[in-house]
Amino acid sequence: MTKLLCVYCSSSDRLDQKYFTAAEAVGRALAAQGWGLVYGGGKTGLMGTVARAAKSGGARVVGVIPDFMKAKELAYEGADEMHTVVTMRERKLLMETRADAFLALPGGWGTLEEMMEIVTLRQLDVLRKPCVFFNQDGFYDDLLRFFEKMVRERFNKPSNLELFTVATTVEEIFAQLAAFRPTTAESKWFVTT
After folding, report:
1. What is the pTM of this model?
2. For the chain, where are the alpha helices, taking DSSP H only?
């Protein structure tokens, strides 16, 4: 059975072209590496770009979209599977359940919230699947500095920074996914002083 990469990313069409170019490269690479895609089911923004590129490369595309978005005709009709759910929480759970790995491309509130939930589940040892932030052109630099501040201020342990990896190129994303090995005890959520 094909492994599915869950990709979280922006649904906005108002972004700089460089983000669409990179999203297309991710979709093509995903297919070339033998991955399938599970994602938020949309046809717009980086979401639609990744899905179309993955599909054109021969990858299986699985969308999960809330019915209120589908009603606005935002669903990508070319998906191999399109699951319609009622709430955003159901959407996240189904994507999480189907995915074998997680990737955050540049995005907004939703992208950040979705990926942080996955990292938290890894921290709590609920999930043992790879998580990669695609730090295209330094997009996530400030967030990564904030994570380091959490460690300095002892809200997180240094080992929590090992719950995800950071890629700066499309090639690094798939190299990191291939190299992933879960630790035997990832539960490091508590902080000792």
Report:
1. 0.93
2. 17-32, 45-56, 67-71, 88-98, 109-123, 141-152, 170-179
